[in-house]
Amino acid sequence: MKKAINKIKEYFSTNFEVLAATIIFIGIIASGKEFYKAIILMLEFIVIMEVVKMVSDFIKKETLRLRYIIDIFIIFLIRDVIILSTNKNRDYFDITFLLFVIFVFFMFRILAIKFSPGIIKISKDTVIEYEDDRPNKKIVTTRESTPDE
Question: Does the pLDDT of residue 137 top 80, yes or no?
Answer without folding.
Answer: no
